[in-house]
Amino acid sequence: xxxxxxxxxxxxxxxxxxxxxxxxxxxxxxxxxxxxxxxxxxxxxxxxxxxxxxxxxxxxxxxxxxxxxxxxxxxxxxxxxxxxxxxxxxxxxxxxxxxxxxxxxxxxxxxxxxxxxxxxxxxxxxxxxxxxxxxxxxxxxxxxxxxxxxxxxxxxxxxxxxxxxxxxxxxxxxxxxxxxxxxxxxxxxxxxxxxxxxxxxxxxxxxxxxxxx
Length: 213
What we know:
Helix content: 40-55%
Shape: elongated
Distance between the termini: 49 Å
Strand content: 5-15%
Number of strands: 5
CATH topology of the largest domain: Rossmann fold
Structural class: alpha/beta
CATH class of the largest domain: Alpha Beta
Number of helices: 9
CATH architecture of the largest domain: 3-Layer(aba) Sandwich
Mean pLDDT: 85
């Protein structure tokens, strides 16, 4: 029998734990471990398999979910981390992206969506979608702590990257720059290669984490 993957659910709410556990018990692919946010220790990881996933409720009592995420990463470097949310919180999501959160599981997600997201997280694939990144970017542009870091891109590549964050298509970028669609495709490929990512979503997340624009 294939070993179950460990899901570390950080929440104060038993009803959420019970709901998640019921769904995942039926899937026979994941085992849920409840972690109280104030009782996380490195020793907890000793009995787990090598690829646990962290799922952090954003509605923790008197605790910052981003700080909890950072603590989990210190205990198990490289652990894929997701937020567990009841709706959107772009400002919190912005801080999450900057600190390694790769996406969100919504409390309204279907069992199928939950399993799909966990399966992707298991392989450390970024789950933020275009609409979420656009709303995160809106908060990002208002963030007084933003600093423009040096990056290995030309001025035009930097401009194209800023439009990728906003969810613009290659055709829309081409029209705005008055250049050909093929030229934009080449620029996007140069950007992906230079910053070491494989797709547009990863490029947008990279830019947010680097606090660019």
